[in-house]
Write the structure tokens for this entry.
Amino acid sequence: MKISLFCNAGMSTSLVASKLKKAYLERGITYDIEAYDFSALQEEADDADVIILGPQIAWAFDDVTKDYPDKKVIQLTMVEFGSMDGEKVLERVEKELK
């Protein structure tokens, strides 16, 4: 599975992505998890199974959901994102995928 995280500049999101990847690895699951600047959405979204949006771009959730109806789109809350807790984000992803 490919999980793509997007935010304004991709900087803080790359940290969230690495912690999410680590949390999955600790469970023995290897997913392709990458962080991107929001401007890369059109280039990267087609390859993603899950699109995660950082709270900085919450305004884009409805458009992304509409533009990519075959993708699971998740909007992280400020608390989830700010915690930089890979386990917490993993739990959210798994909950949304059920």
